[in-house]
Amino acid sequence: MVVQIKSMGLFGMTAYDVNVETDISRGVSSFDIVGLPDTAIKESRDRVRSAITNSGFGFPNRRLVINLAPADIKKAGSYYDLPILLSILVANNAVNCDLSKSAFIGELSLGGDVRPVNGILTMAIQAKKNGIQQFYVPAENAPEGAIVEGIDIIPVPHVINLIRHLRGQAPIAPAPHYQPAKQDLTYPIDFSDVKGQETVKRAMEIAAGGGHNLLMIGSPGTGKSMLAQRLPTILPDMTFEEMIETTQIHSTAGILSKDTPLLTQRPFRSPHHTISPIGLSGGGSIPRPGEVSLAHHGVLFLDELPEFNRNAIENLRQPMEDGVITISRANAVLTYPCSIMLVAAMNPCPCGYFGHPTRTCSCSHQTVLKYLSKISGPLLDRLDLHIEVPPVDFDDLTSTTKGESSETIRQRVNAVRLRQQERFKGSSIHSNAHIPSGQLDKYCPLDDAAKAVIKRSFHQLNLSARSYSRLLKVSRTIADMDNSDVIQRSHIFEAVQYRTLDRKYWQRT
Ligand SMILES: Nc1ncnc2c1ncn2[C@@H]1O[C@H](COP(=O)(O)OP(=O)(O)OP(=O)(O)O)[C@@H](O)[C@H]1O
Ligand SMILES: [Mg+2]
């Protein structure tokens, strides 16, 4: 008799159906798994056998063949322990019920405990689309699965609980639909801790408001890292759709905490500069999303930008444009979303004092050029706002007047984001930074004076087509902050001011 149990597989961010077929026949006692399994699945043979006997069920002493279909997709992980075990018990008549609308997933311990696996949210979304009504998942993963409405997520702590449930002896209640609680965002740090630096704060507010990339350049101890660390405190609230997308990636990477099944705050990832290209972009022998994808709908902060491996940062160029990163494997191509705000900080030279108003730089001209050239032109072109972080003034530093709080700034940022959500309703655009070039005319109307200014700036600053469109998008955000539907001259002036730094540092020869 052939028994079929439904399960789900995960390839990158795509979930697909897997059927676990079991055939028990007469013959010499054996237990084989076929269907391109990797070593983890072979190991699952031993776990399943132990879990069955240790849970008090008999293991069939016959010829047992398990097929994981479709056979042409390479399956990885220990996800199929539970469906394999169940298919054996069903084939052995230990369970007898209709499972045509049920799917099962989970790793087993030798004692029969069901252990958590990665990517439950993505699989639950797909399972629902495929008409599955009950999705049996490891108990620890159930809150994550229960984010999806319209499908019963059954938490399974142990094999015995599952069998008693299927036999109708002790039904397990589906996990309650997970509703994120409205959180009061409190942070131990605040923008008001940063004295002075008003221009930088303004640039950060614009970046947060429209989702633009930002480069901060300045001498040591001027507060670049301090400012960047406070960026999460002014980021706009996430939409539910954004929460789901970001959670899916963290779930696939297996870094979702048990206590927060749904990420409700924008991620802020700040990898150390020693990170490898794979760590930043994703990939590896068992493909995993990189930091750039873990920062999806949030911030990727690269502190000390020139210290990063050049390949690692250059690899980000295309993903920064597309919002997705493609990873080529020997037999397939994976994509992970990575719609990010890139924020970077750097010193202007190795000693840190090139361009400093009062201190002398001890670097040679060549050393400065070599240092700055670590940031390629194309990467610089993608950083919408370039901002110089000047030394803090003594009066500012010792002043007792508190600057604006993060809460006040965040309220403004939220209002600006709300305008954008209205504007982009019904489209896949999330913020001004992601307006496609083809739709700039539609979303970025300019008045006549603004047109004249942008034309002049284009020639004076020798802008590329890309920096032109980025300039327009930043102006769009500044106009939004000014409650103006049409982009005016002053908005362009301000946006242009954030594109002049590269001339000061990079175009000096
Ligand atoms: N504007 C500021 N207001 C208050 N404190 C400041 C300010 N700038 C710097 N500091 C103090 O100086 C410390 C160092 O600042 P921070 O690490 O942010 O400098 P940095 O610009 O990142 O320097 P580096 O280039 O060396 O990385 C902060 O922890 C803070 O105590
Ligand atoms: Mg720093």
Structural commentary:
- This protein folds into 3 domains: 2-166, Ribosomal Protein S5, domain 2; 191-416, P-loop containing nucleotide triphosphate hydrolases (Rossmann fold, 3-Layer(aba) Sandwich); 432-509, Helicase, Ruva Protein, domain 3.
- The chain contains 21 helices and 18 strands.
- The protein has helices at residues 39-54, 81-91, 120-129, 142-145, 159-166, 198-210, 224-229, 240-252, 277-281, 291-294, 310-314, 317-322, 365-372, 377-382, 394-398, 406-423, 440-443, 448-460, 465-481, 489-497, 501-505, and strands spanning 2-11, 14-25, 30-34, 63-69, 102-104, 107-108, 114-115, 134-138, 152-156, 214-218, 268-269, 282-283, 288-289, 299-303, 324-328, 333-337, 341-346, 385-389.
- The strands form 6 sheets. A 5-stranded parallel β-sheet has the order 11-14-17-10-18.
- Helix 1 packs across helix 2 and helix 19 packs across helix 20.
- The protein is elongated.
- The structure holds adenosine-5'-triphosphate (ATP) and magnesium ion.
- The site of magnesium ion has 4 residues, from helix 7.
Question: End-to-end span in angstroms?
Answer: 79 Å
- Name the bound molecules: adenosine-5'-triphosphate, magnesium ion
Indicate the low-confidence ranges by residue numbers. Answer: none
At CATH level 3, the topology of the largest domain is: Rossmann fold
Q: C-alpha Rg, in Å?
A: 27 Å
Classify the beta-strand content into a percent band: 15-25%
Total strands: the figure is 18
Q: How many domain modules?
A: 3
